[in-house]
Amino acid sequence: MPMAPGMFPLLCQVLLAALFALALSSPASPSKDQAPSDAAAGKFLRACCANTTSAAVCYDSLLPLAGSFQGNRVKVAGAATAIAFARLRRFGAELRHLQRGGSTGFGIRVDRTLESCVKYITYAFTDEGAVLAKLRRLETVAGRRGKHARSDLVEARIGLVGVGDSVTYCADDFAGFGGAVLASPLGKKVLAGNATVRLCNGIASELVASIKL
Which of 113, 151, 109, 111 is nearest to 133 (CA)? Predict the structure, then answer.
């Protein structure tokens, strides 16, 4: 569906706002008082995040877990994937909350599009447990050398593709309704949720793609 006039600048503004908010969610760099082990963990995480869509957001969102990664890039990818699914779940909950009134106020087509968005996102949730389980198997050397290693990695990537697709379909569907809908609280919530999930999912997808078997 073609993007409505004015949609691209608005989406860019929302994405930048999401980037800014996420980047401020935790300290951007280790403090001078960190223990040597903490500093090493932070340095490792920074290296893992360096080539992602947003290195700053990647680093800040995963920093609270840095001490648990122990030099294991698969654990970093698994944690980022869990965050992506958590953001998707929150977005889905926000959209379901908007349905409680029974009508968006923009007519039946918009109502049905919102319903479709919830279905897209709910369907993407079904892969969460399997994707995280496959990544946990790949955390060990034995798992990365096992006969299922390649299929586990491929299926984890596919699961993340599903996350991205679910919010993209939703945003694309809403884009066709034009400025009045997109400028409304409903439209802004859809665009903001889409931007946040896509950002987190992009980071997770890049970290998973970097896993070496």
Answer: 151
Q: Which two tokens stand for residue 115?
A: 């319903």
156 within 8 A of 213, measured Cβ to Cβ? no
Q: Residue 121 contacts by C-beta under 8 Å, 6 or more apart in sequence?
A: 88, 91, 92, 95, 166, 167, 170
Q: Give the DSSP H or E segment for 160.
A: helix 149-175
List Cβ neighbours of 162 (8 Å cut-off, separation of 6 or more). Answer: 123, 124, 127
Tens-place pLDDT, residues 88-107: 999 999 999 988 877 888 89
Q: Considering Cα of 194, then 199, then 202, then 207, what sign does the dihedral take?
A: negative
Res 165 pLDDT > 60:
yes
